[in-house]
Specification:
The relative contact order is 0.12. The strands form three sheets. A six-stranded antiparallel β-barrel has the order 5-6-10-8-7-11. It folds into two domains: 100 residues, 3-Layer(aba) Sandwich (Rossmann fold), CATH 3.40.50; 81 residues, Elongation Factor Tu (Ef-tu), domain 3 (Beta Barrel), CATH 2.40.30.10. It is of the alpha+beta class. The protein contains three helices and eleven strands.
């Protein structure tokens, strides 16, 4: 749990839900005292990491029996539900599903210059060279002229696909493959970054602040 919370925060996960599982196995079963003990300990830990416990729903559950997963359980007469406060407003509920529904979708940085780090590069028969990766910022469209850093190679995007379906545009969060013109698979490598050649394309740097 500690490692997961730290990893989540380090990777930029801003919203958290704490499901206190196996409540059917406490002594006695569905113990309020044990739940409060865990809630206090985990709240203290996630606060040290950087989360605000007031914005984190804590839900006592039993995954095995389905308690408080989809429907409020009668096994927790003491549990009045979770409530959170965040700058976007308040939210409350009783179940894990309601806590998941209360998560706010992150804003997608489509207005920023395109940045697409390559995860892999494939040579596909009858199609050609297909780099694969996730759009981090900006938008990728067929017909765009892209520049790859640090090799400074510029080419046109012929098509963009996600899950074997052609896309008119790919936005941040999309894992895509895109076919590029007149580029050998040997010229591109995992770790290269694609950008829009007309809008602040990525460039190599001698040094940077981390």
């Amino acid at each position: 749990t500690r490692e997961h919370a730290l990893l989540a925060y380090t990777l930029g996960v801003k919203q958290l839900i704490v499901g206190v599982n196996k409540m059917d196995s406490t002594e006695p079963p569905y113990s309020e005292a044990r739940y409060e003990e865990i809630k206090k300990e985990v709240s203290s830990y996630i606060k040290k990491i950087g989360y605000n416990p007031a914005a984190v729903p804590f839900v006592p559950i039993s995954g095995w029996h389905g308690d408080n997963m989809l429907e409020p359980s009668t096994n927790f007469p003491w549990y009045k539900g979770w409530s959170i406060e965040r700058k976007e407003g308040k939210a409350e509920g009783k179940t894990l599903l309601e806590a998941l529904d209360a998560i706010l979708p992150p804003s997608r940085p489509t207005e920023k210059p395109l940045r697409l780090p390559l995860q892999d590069v494939y040579k596909i028969g009858g199609i050609g060279t297909v780099p694969v990766g996730r759009v981090e910022t900006g938008v990728l469209k067929p017909g765009m002229v892209v520049t790859f850093a640090p090799c400074n190679l510029t080419t046109e995007v012929k098509s963009v696909e996600m899950h074997h379906e052609a896309l008119e545009e790919a936005v941040p969060g999309d894992n895509v493959g895109f076919n590029v013109k007149n580029v050998s698979v040997k010229e591109l490598r995992r770790g290269y970054v694609a950008g829009d050649s007309k809008n602040n394309p990525p460039k190599g740097a001698a040094d940077f602040y981390a």
